[in-house]
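Hi R.,

Here's the chain you asked about this morning:
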Amino acid sequence: MVGWWRKKSALEKDAPVMGAPEFLSGSTRGTLPAHMDGPGGRRAVALVVHDDGVVLTVGDVRRTYVWSEVAHVWHANDMDGEADDGLVITEWRHELLLEFTDGTVVNSLLADSPVVTPESAFRTGRLSSSPPSVIAPLMQRVIAPVTELHLARAKATLAGGGQVEFGPLTAMADGLHHGDKKIPWHTITSCRYGFVIFHEDEDELGAMLRMEYAVDGGAHGLPFAWLRIPALDVPDLDVLVRLVDENRS
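And the predicted structure, written out as tokens:
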């Protein structure tokens, strides 16, 4: 992955910060502190979210990207916590990783305010109520429009006989392929992003793409098999979930 300061879009030039570009003026929705890793080390950046795209600022230099210039998006939730006298203090974290078509990659990892929960409730997966996240909706303002664009492209690619890569999964006209395993669309009974905090019978904790599909002679005699893939291993995960929903019926 190429650092922003090493590779520049042919259509964009670096410029001093002078306010929002004309086509984005008046549409600012918020700012996500982020960072970039490259040959020069880690650099702090600001990712200002607009209706039509994002403005990426580092130091006194600014770059503008519309949604069509987002090549891939990864996102996941995570939780950090500690136990203290029968209470569990937890902190939701939200991660967003963007790769742009010019090779620039930025990552934003932010946390909501800590939440205090009795340990007995925590172990059932129930958390105490907390104020609505101000981070997740802003990240969703990036994820949603990019997903719509990529979904339309993916559907066109599949209709034309092509394939679309989602990390360890490949979508084709006949279904999904995972390694040497073929999963026809019509056999998929469930496909979703999910986060498991704690469960006595669940080994795959954390943010995952969770898929169930019908097979002959599945584990323990059940007619189903399961895939659990870490969410950050699946680029454009929401596109994949939407494709499954539209093709499995």
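The chain has three helices and 16 strands.

Let me know if you need anything else.
M.
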